[in-house]
Predict the structure.
Amino acid sequence: MRGLKNLPVYLALTFGGIIFAYPFVWMLFSTFKPEMELTGIGLWSPNMSLDNYRTVLTTIPIGRALLNSMFVSLAVTTCVLFFGSIVGYALARLRFLGRDLIFAVILFTMVIPFQITLIPMYILMVKFGWVDTYLSLIVPGMINSFGILLFRQFFRDIPQDLIDAARIDGCNEFQILFRIIWPLSKPVLITVGILAFMGSWNDVLWPLLVIRLETLMTMPQLVTLFAIGGQAANQMGVQLAATTLLAAPIIIIYSFFQKYFIESMATSGLKN
């Protein structure tokens, strides 16, 4: 009886899920269709092939761009987890002069649009000689204000007695953080890691400014230039294939870690 009572809710959720997912499923199937069949809304075609993917792989160095994006995104994610957790721990568990002011400044930076800092950051990259290098893609994203906020709020929920016991045993603050708190913080680590990875992976505007060498271009940058620069020859199927290759790593990573992502969002202690 309970199942029958909730049946309308389940049907409504199922319908909404189909409506939401259909454009993405259509995009995936369309990458295998000939160009002339992309005007329909149906999924299946008897003429499906891998021609669109072959065109992408032979026209642009998307394999090298994939490696560039993986290297940059993993480097940024590692730095965000390392430095963000250190700052978050200091703001959550250490007492020092100006702690609340520093936290207020960090929160303030979250409301500043990225476009405002774009020109000063570019000038700094030019002054440092980092244009057309990996440093220009990695260094500006090494620390993340939202990641610091999540770490701070999560660390505030860890029992103080555990930290005091570690100090009595002779652990310094870094040992407490990386040997005791990190193993207990898997949900927030995965959440911040996913957000940092997605932010770095999907970034297009900044790489377009600081990277001009094709061998250093990231995958979103190369796909953008491929789609609007004329190399795709206005073929929608080829553009959809390039977009699918761009989105695939993020979808795969999220599908593996979505459990921890949702758990952290539900228990990160943002109410504090």
User: Anything to note?
Assistant: The CA atoms of residues 126 and 133 lie 11 Å apart. Residues 62-93 form the longest helix (32 residues). The mean pLDDT is 86.
